[in-house]
Design brief:
seven-stranded antiparallel β-sheet; 9 strands
């Protein structure tokens, strides 16, 4: 009987921990080359949202310089932003808060698809993105998860104040 109680407690604890990790989990991106298949994307002058079976919302937009694809993950505070040249090759990609600044590494590519630079966007900040999320949770500041097509939501961005790199929560 004691083993059952201990096992039940362990299962509950593990489930609670995995839910906590899911709240702050950051999607993964790599420094690998990508190419967007333009002909398979319905081009419009305005942004458009596609819901995928995997629970993502993808926003595709065009501009004179190329294309942008923002991917929002249903249960995440973060999205991936990918910019492409007119030839469809990746220009740069990074993760960002759903309504805010890039986090982690921003990968830059040349027009031939070669990785040219890895920019560490969190360098010089005393808080990691995960600590910003924990701060918001502790202070009951609601951060948006996933895609929202309208409304006002908490924004997390980076700034420099008096020569110091800081996170700004609006």
């Amino acid at each position: 009987m004691n083993k059952i109680i201990i096992l039940a407690g362990l299962v509950f604890f593990t489930q609670f921990q995995s839910q906590e990790l899911q709240k702050t989990m950051i999607p993964k991106i790599t420094n690998e080359f990508e190419k967007i298949t333009i002909q398979n994307s319905k081009k419009k002058d305005d942004d458009r949202c596609i819901e995928t079976p995997e629970g993502r919302n993808e926003i595709f937009s065009t501009s004179e310089g190329g294309y942008k694809l923002s991917i929002y993950y249903e249960n995440s505070f973060y999205k991936s932003d990918k910019f492409y040249y007119k030839n469809g090759y990746i220009k740069n990609k990074s993760l960002a808060f759903n309504t805010g600044s890039p986090v982690g590494i921003l990968y830059h590519f040349d027009k031939s698809g070669k990785l040219t630079k890895e920019e560490y966007t969190d360098e010089g900040y005393s808080f990691t993105p995960e600590k910003v999320v924990k701060y918001c949770e502790k202070n009951k500041i609601a951060l948006p998860k996933g895609y929202h097509d309208s409304g006002f939501y908490t924004r997390v961005r980076k700034d420099v104040l008096d020569g110091k790199k800081v996170w700004v929560i609006e």
